[in-house]
Amino acid sequence: MSLESQVKLPVIEFSDENLKPGSSAWASACTDVRRALEECGCFEAKFEKMPRQVRDAAFAGAEELFGLPTEVKLRNTNDKPGFHYFGQFEFMPLYESLAVENPTSFDATSNFTRLMWPDGNDRFRESAQSFSEPVTELDRIVARMLFESYGVGHYYDYYSKNTCYLLRYFGYREPMPDQTNAGILPHTDKTFFSILHQGDIGGLMVKMKDGRWVDVPASPTSFVVMAGDALMIWSNDRIQSCYHQVIMKEKKRRYSLGIFSFVNGTIHIPEELVDETHPIRYKSFDNFELLKFFSSKQKMPLIKDFCGI
Length: 309
Ligand SMILES: O=C(O)CCC(=O)C(=O)O
Ligand SMILES: [Fe+2]
Fold this sequence. Notes:
Layout: H1 3-6, E1 11-14, H2 24-40, E2 42-47, H3 52-66, H4 70-73, E3 86-87, E4 95-101, H5 106-116, H6 122-149, H7 155-162, E5 163-172, E6 182-187, E7 193-198, E8 204-207, E9 213-215, E10 222-227, H8 229-234, E11 244-247, E12 254-263, E13 266-267, E14 285-286, H9 287-295, H10 303-307
Parallel strand pairs: 1-2
Antiparallel strand pairs: 2-10, 3-4, 4-5, 5-12, 6-11, 7-10, 7-12, 8-9, 8-11, 13-14
The structure holds 2-oxoglutaric acid (AKG) and fe (ii) ion.
């Protein structure tokens, strides 16, 4: 085994014991979350609240969704930049994804389902919402723990009221002989948090601070929590957004599900996170303007060109 594959992500367990705010187990989980994000930009969350049948139904839904004709998938449009179908890229021929905005809502999941299946598909609709509920809950737990650990617990109220969630389904074809096995090229997300959950086929890799790429094993009980660029800016660079990519190592189709959080309204860098060793690096910004800025550029711009000081 090479040294590279021995590096592992930090693992944090979220169980009944440490989910009680105010308990000592909660306080130590708050510190673990902050340390993992500051040191690695991501961690593996073991989260018991996802029932096995809900997870399996969500992946069965993914398989059905990617089985639809491309022209149907292309109906997945949205006024928000980047909240739509992606695929058919020459430089990433294996990758496709579809997005459901506000996936914990009955109406939003119904609208998406009707768009894909005009005759209805209740099983799919229900699976999308039931999967999203516990994962958005995990997002809020992680956010609250991080804010408390930074001494800005009051920010949680604003976050929970103003966060907009996106459920994204990822599908990757198996590479043909002589075709690239790059599923998705290295990038950071424009989110506050991204929580990814792989199906049975792994392939996700995350980059550590020392430049090493680490495999994220697929597991039915693991969720990868990653810092997005919006969190990096909000944290005044105490946390770096997580570089990640997908390499298709197995000759099989791969599915993955992601819950992405975006904060509505102007995000200010908390004064508590600014001090002599962390002078202010960014101006206040809008998460959707950040998305727009990146989607409008041909060449990958730098965050500092968007809101750096
Ligand atoms: O397929 C995955 O697990 C990750 C996809 C991803 O990183 C993205 O589209 O932002
Ligand atoms: Fe990503």
